[in-house]
């Protein structure tokens, strides 16, 4: 498996410094998310900090920019990285799109497929005309005067549900997991859907990237408590009902959703943490990471962030980067 990393920083300066250290430790790709920062601006900052590692978005929101803007940003980032950029896209949730960004959520499957088709057409240099069921583009006659580094930039898709996962298998260069994704879920739910979506493609054409939230501490109990904030953040989302039910955590998920809707703290018992987060001592985390062998092509390690103080996140991040060096 390839080992990659999603750095954290209170500032862009700290983020890029962590990216540089992760590259020095051996991380092959540096991934940046989109939530409290712009994924493409963060990727541009990281591009100036690393010299060998790839730079990817995990993920940029697919519907909050026009496909044309996303394609142009991808071309610029590919130039900044010398052809090492990976465009990771995700649909997000209905609430995020409609309430946070005021963009449509109707027909997300078709919208994501057509968004990728438009992006690839723009990156390839045209023709810049597209008439889909959701997306439209009419920029005929437009010629970008800048020579691209590549006319095909890898597009990875984040997917949790079966239909989105099959779509990733059918059209993407890689699949990106949710930050919580156990080896059992990968083996029994994700890989069969990816295979069903391949539709004649070779499995080797698809990079299966599992995102693994990581919490390392000499005290395993402290590592689990640090990870609890991440579980609480996601457990309050009703959309993930089937995911938690698969792990025999339906009751805990229902309680978390009810608490979130009531504005109360989400209580996360240890039995929610152990199957879904790499938490423990360095040796315990390395052993749990090894369980993805033969299932994932790439692992993206990220520090547990939600609910933790900056100094706590920094200590954890340093331990993760140290672990990458030993791996």
From TrEMBL:
GO terms for molecular function: oxidoreductase activity, acting on paired donors, with incorporation or reduction of molecular oxygen. InterPro entries: F420-G6PD/mer, Luciferase-like_dom, Luciferase-like_sf. The keyword Oxidoreductase applies. Residues 10-295 form the Luciferase-like domain. Keywords: Oxidoreductase. The keyword Ribosomal protein does not apply. This is LLM class flavin-dependent oxidoreductase. It comes from Nonomuraea zeae. The lineage of its organism: Bacteria, Bacillati, Actinomycetota, Actinomycetes, Streptosporangiales.
């Amino acid at each position: 498996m390839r080992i990659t990393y999603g750095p954290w920083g209170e500032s862009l300066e700290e983020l890029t410094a962590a990216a540089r250290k992760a590259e020095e430790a051996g991380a092959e790709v540096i991934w940046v998310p989109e939530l409290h920062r712009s994924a493409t601006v963060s990727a541009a900052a990281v591009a100036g900090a690393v010299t060998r590692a790839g730079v990817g978005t995990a993920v940029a929101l697919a519907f909050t920019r026009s496909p044309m803007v996303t394609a142009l940003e991808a071309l610029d980032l590919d130039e900044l990285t010398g052809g090492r950029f990976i465009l990771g896209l995700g649909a997000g949730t209905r609430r995020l799109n409609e309430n946070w960004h005021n963009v449509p959520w109707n027909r997300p499957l078709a919208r994501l497929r057509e968004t990728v088709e438009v992006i690839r057409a723009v990156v390839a240099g045209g023709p810049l005309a597209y008439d889909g069921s959701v997306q439209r583009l009419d920029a005929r006659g437009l010629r970008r005067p800048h020579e691209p580094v590549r006319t095909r930039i890898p597009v990875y898709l984040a997917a949790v549900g079966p239909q989105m996962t099959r779509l990733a298998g059918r059209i993407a260069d890689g699949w990106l997991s949710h930050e919580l994704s156990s080896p059992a879920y990968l083996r029994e739910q994700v890989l069969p859907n990816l295979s069903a979506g391949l539709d004649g493609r070779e499995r080797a054409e698809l990079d299966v990237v599992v995102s693994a939230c990581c919490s390392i501490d000499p005290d395993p109990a402290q590592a689990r408590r640090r990870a609890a904030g991440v579980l609480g953040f996601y457990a309050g989302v009703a959309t993930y009902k089937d995911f938690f039910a698969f792990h025999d955590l339906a009751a805990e998920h229902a309680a978390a959703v009810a608490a979130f809707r009531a504005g109360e703290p989400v209580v996360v018992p240890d039995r929610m943490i152990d199957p879904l987060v790499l938490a423990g001592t360095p040796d315990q985390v390395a052993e749990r990471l090894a369980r993805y062998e033969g299932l994932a092509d790439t692992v993206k390690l990220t520090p547990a962030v939600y609910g933790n103080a900056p100094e706590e996140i920094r200590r954890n991040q340093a331990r993760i980067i140290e672990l990458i060096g030993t791996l």
